[in-house]
């Protein structure tokens, strides 16, 4: 999640962000079923444990319905997509829909290949998602069918900047209205929107793009936040995005104090996810309702 384009950062925190959303995760300790990619599966499990949730990383088609039945939310990530897991994603998603569990989609690399693009389209047809989180190019592919992604990274032409916030917010709201899902577009500036409201978030830093999996970890955290805050899914998603960015900011500060590198940054990031609370959020959250 690149943050080098951010400027004119507001300090206000909207009053309609409920208190104790993070504490709700730790009190309820929701089980999060993740069908995610094997590059980042360990980091996703650890970030869930750090924020107070319990991960279950099951992707065999013969057990995904049983597993999602005992969980509180489902996270589907297309990062290392294959034919075996596509069927598992569909079965788990339809079971979670029947149980009315929140489902979060991370369409990693949508637009990078025919398989990824067509699979994401199929998932959107056959599963009702509560949140779709991706970079600007992935969301653009879903919204317009235009493939501009660079592998699993956003094309520089799609970066969210101060100059295109208004148009990006409008596009996110339109996609939310069409899909019924909250749309979270993460990058230099983050946007979290439903059909009528949008949050602009400016937490984080460029170091977060130097390690694999910060986006995947964020999607898992959103799953935990939504599972523990069912009545406030938009605010839960926005809070999850901001808290991940704040942990990245604190991790970078610790890195600079110790002259550490990228591996140390990952450790600090997870460490501070395990320590973050509402007081820290209120101190560092850079978010506005637009």
Structural class: alpha/beta
As laid out across the biggest beta sheet, the strand order is 2-1-3-4-5-6-7-8-9
Q: In the CATH hierarchy, what is the class?
A: Alpha Beta
Shape category = globular
Spans with pLDDT under 50 lasting ≥5 residues?
1-10
SSE diagram, text form:
Layout: H1 21-28, E1 31-35, H2 41-51, E2 54-56, H3 64-69, E3 73-77, H4 83-99, E4 103-106, H5 114-126, E5 131-134, H6 136-144, H7 165-179, E6 182-185, E7 190-193, E8 198-201, H8 214-228, H9 233-258, H10 262-273, H11 278-284, E9 287-289
Parallel strand pairs: 1-2, 1-3, 3-4, 4-5, 5-6
Antiparallel strand pairs: 6-7, 7-8, 8-9
Commentary on this structure:
- The radius of gyration is 17 Å and the shape is globular.
- By secondary structure, it is of the alpha/beta class.
- It contains 11 helices and 9 strands.
- Helix 1 (21-28) crosses helix 8 (214-228).
- The two termini are 21 Å apart.
- A 9-stranded mixed beta sheet has the order 2-1-3-4-5-6-7-8-9, sandwiched between helices.
- The chain has one domain: Ribokinase (UDP-N-acetylmuramoyl-L-alanine:D-glutamate ligase), CATH 3.40.1190.
What key phrases describe this protein's structure?
nine-stranded mixed β-sheet, 9 strands, disordered N terminus
């Amino acid at each position: 999640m690149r943050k080098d384009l951010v400027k004119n950062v507001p300090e206000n925190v909207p009053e309609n962000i409920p208190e104790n959303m993070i504490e709700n995760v730790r009190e309820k300790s929701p089980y999060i079923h993740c069908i995610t990619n094997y590059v980042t599966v360990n980091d996703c499990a650890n970030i869930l444990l750090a924020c107070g949730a319990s991960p279950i990383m099951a992707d065999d088609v013969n057990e995904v319905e049983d597993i999602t039945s005992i969980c509180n939310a489902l996270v589907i990530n297309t990062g290392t997509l294959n034919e075996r897991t596509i069927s598992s994603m569909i079965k788990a998603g339809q079971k979670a829909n029947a149980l009315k569990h929140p489902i979060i989609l991370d369409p990693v690399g949508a637009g990078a290949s025919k398989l990824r693009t067509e699979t994401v389209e199929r998932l959107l047809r056959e599963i009702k998602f509560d949140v779709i989180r991706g970079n600007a190019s992935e969301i653009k592919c879903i919204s317009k069918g235009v493939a501009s992604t660079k592998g699993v990274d956003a094309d520089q032409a799609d970066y969210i900047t101060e100059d295109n916030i208004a148009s990006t917010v409008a596009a996110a709201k339109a996609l939310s209205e069409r899909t019924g899902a909250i749309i979270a577009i993460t990058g230099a500036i983050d946007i979290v929107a439903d059909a009528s409201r949008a949050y602009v978030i400016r937490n984080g830093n460029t170091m977060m793009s130097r390690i694999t999996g910060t986006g995947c970890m964020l999607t898992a955290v959103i799953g935990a936040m939504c599972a523990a805050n069912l009545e406030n899914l938009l605010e839960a998603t926005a809070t999850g995005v901001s808290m991940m960015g704040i942990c990245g900011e604190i991790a970078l500060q610790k890195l600079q104090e110790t002259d550490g590198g990228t591996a140390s940054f990952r450790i600090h990031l997870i460490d501070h996810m395990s320590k973050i609370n509402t007081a820290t959020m209120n101190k560092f959250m850079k978010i506005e309702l637009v």
